[in-house]
Design a protein that fits this description.
Number of strands: 0
Order of helices and strands: HHH
Strand content: under 5%
Number of helices: 3
Radius of gyration: 27 Å
Helix content: over 70%
Structural class: mainly alpha
């Protein structure tokens, strides 16, 4: 004959099971957010690398047509400036992605502890 649980023990068990389910759902939500961001990051980085490789190839072809050392130097300086701007822009985009990832993760954690109404109030 199974032992009869006391109401307090049953309530505690139910609360623990609900907490575990919420913790599991939060972990899954955070993992999915991370994977989505990682995929987006990989695509954007690959796109950036392709753009930079194309720009480098074009610039190297231009270098071969330089008519004088000062002209070559000017071309190289312009190439370096463009590279610096591209890498700076890309770094800012990556920082933005990191911010989004942190925001998504914190939202997932908050949603596991707050009701929908509380989340709306928290902003």
């Amino acid at each position: 004959m199974p032992a009869k649980r006391k109401p307090a023990a049953e309530k505690a068990t139910n609360n623990l099971m609900m907490f575990n389910q919420e913790a599991f759902e939060t972990a899954i939500e955070m993992q999915m957010g991370f994977l989505e961001t990682a995929t987006r990051f990989a695509k954007e980085f690959t796109d950036f690398a392709v753009r930079r490789a194309e720009a480098n190839s074009e610039d190297l072809a231009k270098f071969a047509g330089a008519k004088s050392p000062p002209e070559l130097l000017q071309m190289q300086l312009e190439h370096m400036r463009a590279m610096f701007e591209d890498y700076t822009t890309e770094a800012n985009r990556i920082i933005g992605l990191a911010g989004e990832t942190i925001g998504e993760g914190s939202e997932a954690v908050r949603s596991s502890f707050l009701s929908k109404e509380e989340l709306k109030k928290a902003g």
